Amino acid sequence: MNAPSQISFLDGTFSLIHIPLSLYPIFLQPILQVLLPQGDCDSDSLDEAVEGLSIDNKHGFLNISITPVECSVVCHNNWAKKVFEPIIKRLPKDASKTVTISKDSYLILSVESAAMDAGSRVMELTSPLAFAGIPIFFITTYYSDFILVPAKDRQTVQQALLARGFEFSEYESAFVSPSTHTRGSSTSSGPPSTPPPSNVAELQTRTFDLLKRRNVVPYVEDDLSLVVCSGRDTKTTQMSDYRRPAPSRQPTGNGHGSRRSWLDNVDTKLYTSLISVLVLQPRFLSMTLAQEDPPSLLLDKSHLGVFGDSVVGDMSGDLVPIFLDLENLPLEATGIVSGVAGKLVSEMRMAETGVSEQLSYLSTARAGAVILSHEQSMKALEVMKPLLGKE
Length: 391
Fold this sequence. Notes:
By secondary structure, the chain is an alpha+beta fold. It is 31% helix and 23% strand. Mean pLDDT is 82; it is low at 40-48, 180-193 and 237-257.
């Protein structure tokens, strides 16, 4: 029997930040400041976690993505307010208007669903929310999937999952999927202002009609090939030398308490490599930190050598992203992820051939990327272009 999926809310509320590529050099320093937060704790607050970080200075969630469309950051509201907003305010007026921090705060759903292949996960996990009219962002990583939903829609999200057959487990503090999944129509207990689609086919039709009206044309970048990989799990390698901090702080020679440094919790080789690539402004890099997982990377293959043995995974991967520039769509547009992924899976008959195991999806602030093998990406373009091309 397949293991059930589990969906749980991460702690905190998050912001989605759009940075034009032309301003990326200006925002490199704040990006690195958020990525490397070890200097944010002063000696008077050693026993407390900085908002957005755990007690050992780990991010509850952070995604930094650089694509040919934009630089996009998902970070805790605390970082958006204290690190990014001051930089935006110092920009010339015309430039500051081009950088956006989402007005709405987002919650993040962490999804564990090892029993399903990647394509099925995207469809099964996003369709209930699409049917409920909830705008989402979807991030596939090496270990987990993450779904961003507006914080104001938390109750509607919960109702949509329950209506789909998920059950809330007090023990797991998570929504657990039913043993069997049902495809097709779904209802929500709180209909949105625009009537939601009644079934999968209508959802897909609406999605591509909207993309076509807004002149969204799918494309690939020449010679851009990706690999998905992970940093090594430092929990097992460092557990033997871990020293739990004493209940009362004991002064040390450097004037700080006994709290472990941020550097004690991370693979410094991985982070040095990551900084080296970020400084280069790569064509494509999506890095995700989640408190329970080692760092996950979706990386332009040409930069793989910089990381050496600090990453693990299938280094022979040949993944190609199909980009959808969604700048002309409002953030509250619904059903994009589910509609696009579902259409590709059905039209390419991925589920029957097993190819859907390779499909993943990355949402950024102004774009979406469907990620497939090179061969399947070309087939996907053949499916999408007639649906989105000019008549």
